[in-house]
Design a protein that fits this description.
431 residues; FAD/NAD(P)-binding domain
């Protein structure tokens, strides 16, 4: 937004940012945008430098497929380090971030979608031309936009997540291959997989074990996990990773929840828009949560520039139409790879070969895409459709469960090019 000349104020409810979470990936699709906004070298320095990742059998560690990391998650680094790099850049260009420690009560507690304005915990109200609800997976803005509380559903899976100093593994012979230099490995087995990566040649070490879980515990980045349960789950796995898990001091238990796609990302007044996890959270296996949030930011800002700030409704409604299908496919990719990893070795004994393509991540099509170029190319066509919808006061919903699975549309080819035009998509939605 700032890059396109808008004046931005951020309200963040917490008092101080901390180095929370563990690894996330930033793909080339996000990095090409971030480069234009003055953030590139500092981000690349953070990420894991392994050229490839290996997908291995759960029991003996045999490599089933090797894939360039740039085809998978891009640069994998600590979420807190990426976050700090973003904050440094935000400070450099002078964007105001009102944190809980500067001013009491920076939590947004209510909205007036017509002005539009936000009201903070301490009662102060701030008006703007547009309100963007980038308030994460437990978004309050989402409830305003939908008009009801949209509770998450269990995905049937949870992750145990551990992040620690690699030093404790350096003297363990079995761990040498995974702690000596930067690497990314994924062990796959029936209904489970474990992703491991290092940072700075093993200085820091991360593993994330995804397993079946139907327990109804709230989604939280702070819920401690039981290491005894983790050790029991992987006790018969490849000794290389079991040795690392066995000495891991602690972990978090993170429930993976689903949110169904929603029919609108924009409020009825068209002046409050959702962005990032508030409207399109991804499964970890999509490796695209932060990257898709970055793309959405690029598209919304450019739409506002093209529409002009006096025409926010046109901008927000074009934004959601430009973004929905691509985001949906990125989300479905995450489900597809998880299901392939969890099923392909079922009933298959250790000696049998599988086709490496059956276990590879299929994210390549996501990386070539340039969200800003795509917006410029499609603006005229989609803004004409949207203007008509606004004139007739009849906005087509983004998603309706009756229209059938979007997967059938296959909107992008392997190189990130659109296969169909937006008119067809809108027509399908209207059927
Ligand atoms: C603590 C934490 C740890 C995470 N760890 C990982 C990880 O290890 N790996 C991974 O892949 N992804 C992780 N994620 C998710 C990842 O950061 C997001 O998928 C991605 O960055 C997209 O972010 P977003 O901006 O949409 O939402 P978020 O990154 O969740 O940011 C939302 C922000 O809005 C603030 N907020 C919420 N409600 C209000 C309100 N009412 N008023 C003011 N401020 C509000 C929150 O404090 C938060 O800072 C984590 C998220 C969190 C919050």
């Amino acid at each position: 937004m700032e890059h396109h000349g808008f004046h931005v104020t951020v309200f963040e409810k917490i008092k101080h940012f901390m180095r929370l979470g563990d690894s996330l990936g930033l793909g080339e699709n996000a990095l090409k945008l971030l480069k234009r906004w003055g953030l590139h070298e500092q981000l690349i320095r953070i990420g894991n430098r392994s050229p490839d990742m290996h997908i291995r059998r759960w029991d003996n560690g045999r490599v089933l497929a090797t894939q360039p990391l740039m085809d998978m998650a891009g640069y994998i680094g600590h979420r807190g380090d990426y976050h700090q790099a973003f904050l440094d850049r935000v400070a450099e260009v002078g964007i105001k971030v009102r944190m809980g420690h500067n001013v009491n009560g920076t939590k947004v507690v209510s909205f007036n979608e017509d002005k539009p304005s936000v009201t903070l915990e301490d009662g102060r109200e701030f008006e703007a031309d547009i309100i963007i609800g980038a308030d994460g997976i437990k978004s309050q803005t989402r409830e305003l936009v939908l008009g009801f509380a949209d509770k998450p559903k269990s995905s049937g899976y949870a992750c145990y997540r551990a992040y620690f100093k690699g030093d404790i593994l350096r003297d363990i012979p079995q761990c040498q291959p995974i702690v000596q230099r930067d690497c990314v490995n994924i062990w796959i087995g029936p209904d489970m997989h474990l992703v491991q990566n290092t940072l700075r040649d093993g200085e820091e070490f991360n593993w994330i074990l995804t397993h079946r879980d139907d327990e109804d515990i709230a989604e939280s980045w702070f819920q401690p996990g039981d290491m005894n349960k983790v050790r029991e789950l992987v006790k018969d796995w490849d000794p290389m990773i079991v040795s690392a898990v066995n000495v891991t001091p602690s972990c978090l238990d993170w429930k993976i929840c689903y949110r169904d796609p929603i029919s609108t990302w924009v409020s009825a007044s068209h002046k409050v828009a959702l962005l990032g996890d508030s409207c399109h959270a991804h499964l970890p296996t999509s490796a695209q949560g932060a990257s898709q949030a970055t793309e959405s930011a690029a598209v919304l800002a450019l739409c506002l520039k093209l529409a002009g700030k006096e025409n926010v409704p046109l901008a927000t409604r074009v934004y959601e139409k430009l973004r929905f299908e691509r985001v949906r496919q990125a989300q479905l990719n995450g489900e597809d790879v998880r299901d392939r990893w969890h099923s392909c070795l079922k009933d298959l004994d250790g000696g049998k070969e599988i086709d490496p393509d059956d276990v590879k991540m299929k994210n390549r099509w996501l990386y070539a895409f340039d969200a800003e170029k795509d917006t410029l190319a499609r603006w005229a066509e989609v803004s004409t459709i949207v203007q008509k919808e606004l004139d007739e006061n009849r906005i087509t919903p983004l998603f309706d469960s009756l229209t059938g699975p979007i997967r059938e549309l296959e909107l992008y080819d392997a190189f990130g090019n659109r296969k169909t035009d937006s008119t067809k998509y809108v027509q399908k939605q209207q059927q």
